[in-house]
Amino acid sequence: MKLNELRDNEGATHSRKRLGRGIGSGKGKTGGRGVKGQKARSGVAINGFEGGQMPLYRRLPKRGFNNIHAKSFVTVSLAKIQAAIDAKKLDAKETVDAAALIKAGVIRRAKDGVRVLSDGELKAKVSLDVAGASKAALEKIEKAGGSVKLPEAKSE
Hints:
The protein is of the alpha/beta class. Helices cover 19% and strands 12% of the residues. It contains 4 helices and 6 strands; from the N terminus they run αβαβαβββαβ. The strands form 2 sheets. It has a 3-stranded parallel β-sheet with strand order 1-3-5. The longest helix has 9 residues, at 78-86.
């Protein structure tokens, strides 16, 4: 096969519609826009416009807010940690932190920290250095003989 013989698969590309090129084309005159009216003209953007009636998005009350100080944690289950240890991607003897989890491919990015949840079982004795862990996860880790190092809570 040569470079000049490369072709897309049959039906992979569509030729564009040539609008407004005479009555015989089937897409002449109005060019598929129907007849007259605002939508037949150019420059129309009427999403959410209700003909002058107060739009729904303005009739409904505002609710809630976005906390700009909220932290976004990546959650990791005990089952995923155990699976990574079984696959020899994580070393149970080393301290497991966010960087180790990223290197092992358990998580993609650390965001504001890693939080461990108690889904699944943990057989390996592992020491974790994470931003948070659920109570059930802490119990399971300590039951397996491991330890968890959490950041000190700031007291004001």
